[in-house]
Amino acid sequence: MKGEREKLAEKYFNCSESERAAFEAGIKLGTIYHQFVGTPINEENAGLLERAMVEGTMIQPFVIDAEVHIERGPLKSKKGEFDYVSLSGPMLAVRLVVGYGNVKVIARMKHIPEINYPLMYIEDITRIEKR
Amino acid sequence: MKGEREKLAEKYFNCSESERAAFEAGIKLGTIYHQFVGTPINEENAGLLERAMVEGTMIQPFVIDAEVHIERGPLKSKKGEFDYVSLSGPMLAVRLVVGYGNVKVIARMKHIPEINYPLMYIEDITRIEKR
Amino acid sequence: MKGEREKLAEKYFNCSESERAAFEAGIKLGTIYHQFVGTPINEENAGLLERAMVEGTMIQPFVIDAEVHIERGPLKSKKGEFDYVSLSGPMLAVRLVVGYGNVKVIARMKHIPEINYPLMYIEDITRIEKR
Amino acid sequence: MKGEREKLAEKYFNCSESERAAFEAGIKLGTIYHQFVGTPINEENAGLLERAMVEGTMIQPFVIDAEVHIERGPLKSKKGEFDYVSLSGPMLAVRLVVGYGNVKVIARMKHIPEINYPLMYIEDITRIEKR
Q: Which among D42, D82, D84 has the least Cβ separation from residue B9?
């Protein structure tokens, strides 16, 4: 059942359900990247930061599921005063499931070595049974 | 003409052109919000920050046009050492045009008082002539 | 005992121990504010975000202790699709203890209603016994 | 002449003028780094982003001067849809002058290859003539 605010919000949209679902998925991936890139990180807090990123995503509209993985490679042997790094795009892998109306989108962010870019993409978009 | 990297990137997508266009628009709006919210701002630097936000958006994939407006109201009579604010969502209005393949999306972010939320939405999505 | 990198780093500094300690405290407070302001938050994830902010601070150089409190007031009765907020400065209260050499700094960030500003300040700075 | 708000703010501080000046310099460097790291950048918008970072710093309390340089090396031959990068710490060089009371601090941020770290440090701190 849609909330009162979503009923007000949807009047602003002129697009199909699947375009809306894709749009919402894009917002969430852009949010994860630009909110958290730069955060100080080492092996001690990486797991907690992953969870905070997941929870901060789950509370946003239309998110059904979120998984975040921070690559631990760059964090190895970081010990002592200056031994941490800033979270960067290539360290991030995200899997996101967004549902809007009858449409479900599976979107991902991951570093693609061939293009040297943390690509955000739609892995799958499908029509689902009404809940 | 598509670049070499876009040809590699598009293999990862399983969706229509219009869903891809909507997704790309969502990414850019999420990026603007979460990259720049918090930036120190007063009447002196507001115009320059608007331009920096526009330029930082224009260089991203598939962006045709971007306009950013920062509401000056909260900046009035900010003078002296502590008289500036942090850029917040309700101060931001964005209009974004994204083109992917034959599809053009006009997306916006603006504060909607009825729902007390800086809404990101698709104002229009249309099929365009191939360039 | 100082790490190898701190020995290299300290050559760049031309100031007293207490000025260095104050400088390091300032860096950490600026970091907390500008890294995390804008993060999506409601009552469900506030506690986890507080912990992630603490841990991301504790791994930085010379931090002895950190406490972060997010004001829950603005999160009350946030339910449904759009019912969360972006973390803002006035919601944040931080207590930070930094130690450099023989000096200990207790620094805070908190919203001061009289000046309508999330003030970062040095509550106490003291000479401590060598460890 | 001190503003009304600074008179209220300074009651919260228990430290010397030089410690306060160092603290304020630290805040500004932490702010620059964590506000802007992650911003999309290529050769087209680098100059404008530098200026926006300078202006966003100049409006903060006690800042006398600020210079920001973004290393252009990683931006060379970035052309086409995906050819831009996210601003990262090692690309940033900052020189900041802060004045508090009778004290002037020159602080810097720059990447130090030997420690592989974007070091923030106090280059000089001096007593100045009252203005």
A: D82
Q: What is the CA radius of gyration of chain D?
A: 17
Mean pLDDT for the stretch of residues D37-48 = 96
Model confidence at A50, pLDDT cuts 50, 70, 90, reads very high
CB-based contact, C17 to chain D, within 8 Å: no
Superfamily of domain A14-127 in CATH is: 7,8-dihydroneopterin aldolase (MptD) (3.30.1300.20)
**pLDDT for residue D82:** 61
**Residues C39, A35 contacting (CB under 8 angstroms):** yes
- Contacts of residue A4, Cβ cutoff 8 Å, sequence gap at least 6: C80
Low-confidence ranges of chain B (pLDDT < 50): 1
pLDDT of residue D130: 59
Distance (Å, whole) CA D99 – CA D63? 6
Q: How far apart are CA C32 and CA D26, in angstroms?
A: 12
For B92, the token pair is 């931001």
Q: Which residue from D37, D82, D115 is facing A38, i.e. has the nearest CB?
A: D37
- Amino acid symbol at C122: I
Q: Which residue of D has its CA nearest to C18?
A: D19
Cα separations in angstroms, C119 against A47, C92, D18, D60: 31, 10, 18, 12
Specify the pLDDT at position A6. 87
> Which residues, 6+ apart, have CB-to-CB distance to D64 below 8 Å?
D97, D98, D99, D104
Residue of chain D nearest A84, judged by CA positions:
D117
Q: What is the pTM of this model?
A: 0.94
CA dihedral D33, D73, D105, D19 (to 10 degrees): 30
- Which chain A residues touch D40 with a CB distance below 8 Å? none
Contacts of C41 (CB under 8 A, 6+ apart): A56, A59, C49, C70, C75, C84, C85, C86, C87
Q: Which of the following CATH numbers is that of domain B16-127: 3.30.1300.20, 3.40.50.720, 3.30.300.30, 1.10.8.100?
A: 3.30.1300.20
Question: If you write DSSP's letter for every residue of C2-44 in order, what string do you get?
Answer: --HHHHHHHTT--S-HHHHHHHHHHHHHHHHHHHHTT-EE-TT
For D15-127, CATH number out of 3.90.660.10, 3.40.50.1100, 3.40.50.880, 3.30.1300.20 equals 3.30.1300.20
User: How far apart are alpha carbons C73 and B14 in whole angstroms?
Assistant: 43
